[in-house]
Amino acid sequence: AIFKQQNDKLTGTFLTPSGDYRYLEGIVTGDSLKLSTFDGAHAYTFYAKIDNAKNISGGVFYSGISGKETWIAVKNDKAPLPSQDAPTRLREGESKLNFSFNDLDGKPVSINDERYQNKVIIIQVLGSWCPNCMDETKFLSEYYNKNKSRGMEVIGLAYEYTTDLERSTRSLQKFQRLFNVQYPLLITGATAADENKTEKTLPQLTPIRSFPTTIFIDKKGIVRQIKGTFYGPGTGKYHDDFKKEFYSIVDGLLNEK
Questions:
Q1: Which of 99, 159, 168, 256 is the most buried if burial means most Cβ atoms within 10 Å?
Q2: Residue 4, SS3 per DSSP
Q3: What sign for the dihedral angle of Cα 170, 173, 179, 181?
Q4: Are 235 and 13 in contact (CB under 8 A)?
Q5: Half-sphere exposure of residue 107, counting CA atoms within 13 Å on the CB side?
Q6: What residues does 56 pair with on adjacent strands?
Q7: Cα(22)–Cα(15) distance, rounded to whole angstroms?
Q8: Over 90: is that where the pLDDT of 42 sits?
């Protein structure tokens, strides 16, 4: 958790193995804290008691109508980031992805199309329902619009709530307009909750564990890195660290012969 207090105003977020809870805001009153957020898809509220400068106890986290968890906190400036169990990787013997899905206009787009030959490609595994995907899409959209002339491309692969094509298309069109997405958003046809979504859409990978997941592909079509963790702008220095690593990976691939 990252907290910033200014008088009685409190802001911050919580980091998870795959992302963060985005922007939380609230107050400190007496020995208690309250934080909340609503982003259109998720309603979160946090309550807790401040014991002293180092300890928080009696925390309760409410998620939506029925979700409830308890929590405590101990101040530790050197706390390690949580690690992800069984992160997504290439299956043994695989090195490239092979897919073709329709874009929002119903036209097929394949990673094997001429447009993607001899270019660095970033595959964004996303859902229009996913708050962390919103933050990543804003970042990727701005990056792509500034850097596409350098020989790189981005492809978004969408896993929506349902298999209703019209509903998914409408949701993704809104998503596209909101973030001025100029790269293709493809509808995979598999839902985010489908336990077999990876086998149905990207069988070269072990199961997709988190949204977003970002896949970096070199000019020869080889998958070089897969990142299942994204820390958004609400995480401060962790977001800065993400951007530095992202720039380093992409620049390294672009500089390869």
A1: 159
A2: strand
A3: positive
A4: yes
A5: 5
A6: 50, 73
A7: 9
A8: no
Asked if residues 193 and 108 have their Cβ atoms less than 8 Å apart, the reply is no
Q: What is the pLDDT of residues 180-209, one digit of tens each?
A: 999 999 999 999 999 999 999 999 999 999
pLDDT, residue 251, reads 98
Mean pLDDT value across residues 18-42 = 93
Predicted confidence (pLDDT) per residue in 55-108, tens digit? 999 999 999 889 999 999 999 999 988 888 889 999 999 999 999 999 999 999
Report the distance separating Cα 70 and Cα 217, nearest Å.
Answer: 41
DSSP state of 41: S
Q: At how many degrees (to 10) do helices 131-147 and 165-178 cross? A: 60
Name residues whose C-beta falls within 8 Å of residue 158's C-beta, 6 or more positions apart in sequence: 126, 127, 128, 168, 172, 185, 186, 187, 188
Reading the block at residue 141, the tokens are: 């959209």
pLDDT confidence of 1, banded at 50, 70, 90? very high
In angstroms, the CA 104 to CA 81 distance is 37
Looking at the whole model, is its pTM more than 0.85? yes
Contacts 24+ apart (CB under 8 A), 20-29: 20/132, 20/231, 20/232, 20/234, 20/235, 20/238, 21/234, 22/131, 22/132, 22/135, 22/232, 22/234, 23/234, 24/234
State the first-to-last Cα distance of the chain, in angstroms, to the nearest integer. 42
| CA–CA–CA angle 151, 154, 157 (5° rounding) | 155
Q: Which two tokens stand for residue 142?
A: 């701005």
